Amino acid sequence: MAGTNPTRRSPVSAAAAAIGVLLLAYGITGLIFGGSDLGTDTGGTVDGETWLGLEGNGWTNLLFAAAGALLILGSPTRAGAATAMVVTALALGAGAIIAVFDGDDVFGIFAANGWTMLAWGVTAIVLLAAAVLPLMRPRDADTTVAGPPRDQAERDEAMERDLLGPHGRIR
Q: Is the distance from CB of 17 to CB of 10 less than 8 angstroms?
């Protein structure tokens, strides 16, 4: 397209990359400074350590890191970013909902406290909104398939031409 900057990222791609970097950074620092235990207890409750207010074990922190990596890997293209955002949002949203009903973890694998559940839920909502909002943008009425929007004089001239017909007579 003429006049566009090929190195400029779409808003969806930029949002995916930014959120991905935050999730990846939290996951890695959570593994270092928080819980890094990869044990599971599918019959009971797993506990983790708290890092920046969020409880997590090794699996929880790996989930954050994997979600961030997926968003970063999908971010170069608009379609890839949107897909990565929806997949990540579904995974984190499901984790939040399951953790609410399961108690303090997700199926005895991912440790979570109330703040972790809230972080997963809010991140899922933000990702879904960022992925679908550009699709809901209203189109300009003046935008044509052939090119950029016409100015008012061109629209008036085209309307008069349409009314008069090819031979200058009113239809």
A: no
- Cα–Cα separations (whole angstroms), residue 24 to 14, 61, 155: 15, 9, 51
Instruction: List alpha helices for the chain, DSSP H.
Output: 11-33, 58-74, 78-102, 114-132, 152-164
How many angstroms separate the CA atoms of 59 and 53, rounded?
17
Segment (H or E) for 49: strand 49-51
pTM of the entire structure? 0.71
At residue 135's C-alpha, the angle toward residues 130 and 139, to 5°, is 130
* Torsion sign (Cα): 52, 58, 63, 65: positive
Distance in Å from the first CA to the final CA of the chain: 38
**Structure confidence by residue, pLDDT tens digits, 13-47:** 899 999 999 999 999 999 999 877 777 666 666 77
